[in-house]
Amino acid sequence: MENINKMILKYPDPILNEDCKKCAWYPTMAILELHRNLIKIGTVGLAAPQVGYPLRVILVMGVPMVNPEILEFGKMLDSKEECLSVDGIYSVPRASDIRVKWLDHNMDTQEDIFFNDLACIIQHEVDHLDGILINKKGKKL
Q: What's the pTM?
């Protein structure tokens, strides 16, 4: 059986700089790999490019979001963040609340508003899908 346990890619891996492709199907293997790593590492969010899949998929608090799109941004604040793909702690500008649209596990459209830490986590993961890392967007602390 093929070993599908991948390592988290680290900066400057070129996949982390890619603008990821939208999914026309449910990306089962990418989501399985995201779940495995989320549990193994004990983190709250991961993006598909971090595990080698240049697809527009994130996993936040165990929930897969396919083709996530941030529709509205609230008041901006400075968020203190770390990233599994980048060494260090950074201050990154983030919205305190966001409205997001995505496809769920049935590829049905969902839309919701997220606040505070959850809003920052989603923004961080969506940035990965656009090839934007915290070392490009934020200031190292």
A: 0.94
